[in-house]
Design brief:
The chain is α+β, with helices and mostly antiparallel strands and 63 residues long. The chain has one helix and three strands. This is Alcohol dehydrogenase-like N-terminal domain-containing protein. GO terms for molecular function: oxidoreductase activity.
């Protein structure tokens, strides 16, 4: 399978800094598009995940 590379912010440990990582994503199909994100916000549920308020969240996780 052919993959594209993308950058993602990854939470590896609760309460620690997010890490920018290169990740592989599958090559797009004809029905998909690739969107370049230039800025994003933080959702309240992301903050809860970051703090480790739900220990069922598997790490690492992309936020």
């Amino acid at each position: 399978m052919i993959f594209l590379e993308a950058k993602a912010m990854v939470l590896e440990e609760f309460g620690k800094k997010l890490q920018m990582r290169e990740i592989e994503i599958p090559l797009l199909t004809k029905a998909q598009v690739l969107v370049k994100i230039t800025a994003s916000g933080v959702c309240g549920s992301d903050v809860h995940m970051f703090k480790g308020n739900d220990p069922r969240i598997p790490l690492p996780i992309i936020l």
